[in-house]
Amino acid sequence: MGAGKDGRPVRDNYMKKNFSLDKLKNISSVKNDLTVLRHMWFGSKKGDDHAARLESFYGPQAAAYDAFRARFLWGRKPMLAACAARLADRSNMIWVDLGGGTGENVDMMAKYIDLASFKAIYVVDLCHSLCEVAKRKAKAKGWKNVHVVEADACKFSPPEGMATLVTFSYSLTMIPPFHGVIDQAISYLSADGLVGVADFYVSGKYDLPMRQMPWARRFFWRSIFDIDNIDIGPERRAYLEQKLERVWEQNSQGSIPYVPWLRAPYYVWIGRHPTVGHALHEERVERPPMFPPTFLYTQSWEDPEPDMEVMEINGNDTVLTLTSGGCNALNLLVQGAGQVVSVDCNPAQSALLELKKVAIQQLEFEDVWQMFGEGVHPRIEDLYERKLAPFLSQTSHNFWSRRLWYFQHGLYYQGGMGKLCWVLQCLAVVVGLGKTVKRLANAPTLDEQRRVWDSNFIIHFVKHGPKLLVWLFVKFVSLVLFNKAVLWFGGGVPGKQYALIKADGIPIERYIARTMDGVAENSHVRKHNYFYYNCLTGKFLRDNCPTYLREAGFAALKGGLVENLTVSTNFFMEELKARTYTKVILMDHVDWLDLHVAQELAELLARQVAPGGIVIWRSASLCPPYADVIRKAGFDVRCISRADQGYMDRVNMYSSFYMARRKGNKKD
């Protein structure tokens, strides 16, 4: 004790640590959970009708219902967020929550949309005990527009006669006459209304790709839920899609409290009255072998300025381009292309571009700037849940839901090239070049940038040092930093492209030195080269960034141009077969192909590119062998620039840039 103290702080700290209110709450929570589990697993469902069976099942656990289900019913929040995102600009709405239980959905919805936007909210349930909980909650929360109705959902209609939103939150699988309740809900759904469903499920034997399950999983989960009179078969969703048009869906799986390893399958589905179109479905895609589990590029690595000089982009164009970082696909729309199809075989690249597209559609400029200009957003989790996830495809959602930390640690230090940039920045600091890198990135003029570059001791040594020592040094650097593994996973340079560089008789270290020195001597990084400014700093500047991150470009895209972008995860030639194009951007794709595959591509280009149409590509080779193949297929081929003739463009990473025009009259 000592110093005149009585020891109470020590005792109080001990009491707080070992007998705190939080610990008592945790004990109480576990006790409530065990009550729920006991009635779920061992309780009998007694009663002569459905209402009595529901009461016998839910009545004893009603008080603990919400806390337990919050860690079990994972589809509720995404379903409510998806509905709210599509209703954000409406008012005086009517919402009917069928099987709404304790009214917890209303409380959750308040996070996504102002409840005052609803003229009336009807929580409809057949279980008396759950309705009583909902009534107490509505009174405690002061919800004047919330009405708890103890009734059969198959017979309920809102007094107003129409509803803007109808939801089934883990209730449709517990309503035996599901045809009747769906028909009844549709009968009062307004013409522009939505139906939202979240529930457990198993797929059919033959189902849509993103829903499909193996037979053992189907049998296991359907049997487990059947014990509690819950039918999670595919029939309910099939009937929904017979009566309504699917707008959006997600299929996923979530953990179960106190049951390790098992994850229960659930889906979220949003539908509306059928329109003249038809609902598309998403194909299941996998990344190709040898690709990393993330994207290689966070930005496009082809300078769009020389592209625009030769492509003659106009509103009648249908353009096919490879995705890469997606910046140039968005630039094509800003430059006036009528339709742009962006394709990549790596689903992670598609996920990046799809996120950019949805962000432009759903967010304000400042949020988009923070995400993709700064590469960091302090509220990314909230923005993603409320405004981005509700509009992403399932593949993209699966990718981003596990990688939101990219926007906390810096987007442009992620992926293959991002990690390479981060490593090189760290190495620069270790060898004492950290300040030099900052001076290079922020040089106010090109002349100052050249002085910083040429005065650097490593650059000076490489350019003017003893030849033997320079040779030993560059060979060591090449072995460590420019080996095939680093070039592929960090720079996206495959083995076939590496072979083209060697075929020109250029060592890889000299190829890279030519690239870097050309940029440093000829392109002002701070003012007019956002590619390398991003590499050096991990971000863009507002006056030095891709077109979609400039306010004018963003406004044009958000004003409707971005709707003309199709993001496809597919192999290039498969997407080329899908339609006729007036412009095709091959990037360096043909460098990756065997010559016989390049022959197939050239023949396909001849069939799918309209007469007079333009094809452009870049190559790591000074004279790519497939240029003649494309010429013989029916194109006038012209080399625009070559690296052996000097600095090429702001990226300066390729050896040649080509354009080919499809022979024939445009009117043919």
TrEMBL record:
SUPFAM superfamilies: S-adenosyl-L-methionine-dependent methyltransferases. CDD domains: AdoMet_MTases. Coiled coil: none annotated. It comes from the Eukaryota. InterPro entries: DUF3419, SAM-dependent_MTases_sf. This is Betaine lipid synthase. It comes from Volvox carteri f. nagariensis.
